[in-house]
Amino acid sequence: MDYQQTVLSAIDYIENNMFEENVYHHLFDHIFLSKYHFHRIFYTMTNETIADYIRKRKFTIIAKKLKFTNEKIIDIAFACGYNSHESFTRAFKKYFSISPSEFRKNPNENKLLVMDCIDKRKLSNIYFQSNYVPYFESIDQLTLTGIRGTVDLMTVNVQSYWSQLLEYFSDNCIQPNGDYLYMIWESVGCDPRKIDFSEQQNVFIGGVFYDAKKKMDQSLISNQAYACFRLTQTFEYLHDLYSYIYFSWFKKSDMILDDNYIIERYSKDFSFEQKTGFMEILVPIKKQQMSRK
Questions:
Q1: For domain 3-122, is the CATH number 3.40.50.300?
Q2: Would you say 180 and 268 are in contact if contact means Cβ atoms under 8 Å apart?
Q3: Pick the residue with more confidence: 46 or 273?
Q4: Which of 138, 184, 221, 277 is the most exposed place for a label (fewest CB within 10 A)?
Q5: DSSP tag of 279
Q6: At residue 190, does pLDDT exceed 70?
């Protein structure tokens, strides 16, 4: 049986009946598998339970209505299956931690809480991520030389900084030491839930270089153990990988997040446009201490 096609058919049904009453229960009338069996298949292939997927899609659509339309909040509530303004506000606030009216005034939803519809390509990518095993590396303290700037993960405008960086090194005959370039999320620190993928974030971009003229900025990578998640060719799903790491991988790992910066490490031949090279998300980790009884 083609399980991928079965999951895609279920997703298609959910999309077309999102706000119908009991969509979760009616879904199984269209899937010729037992509930238990299909639950396992759906979770294995999407890294989401069916109920969580429906919930995320519902609130994603609601958030877009609030953000991009002038519909009254009460009309959105009724159209989305709620029978009162109060019940709608209560459900929305429970999910996004702010009320619908507050969200409409400042519509910057956390990208880790919303979800676009899963298509065949993304389904394959999520399945890869959910079965992804990182490798672990201890990095000695590194002093990086480079530049500071702002980037966002929607336009991925980091390459312009690399071009400036490499041009400066070339013009000043600065020789690199090592095979990588690094990006440190300085405005986010170690809390990925603070990342808004459409907003500009303060970052440091550089490598291990000796700058004889001391004209460039410097930053320090502390001695630290990292879980390393490598991406090749599927860079457009970078925010999905972040979501997987912090909301799924940590839950099933015996590691916890350590208090240090999120780091992205890039091979020198890395290119978003050409889809060459690789990038890695370096997550600072430490062993979870067992509680004493």
A1: no
A2: yes
A3: 46
A4: 138
A5: E
A6: no
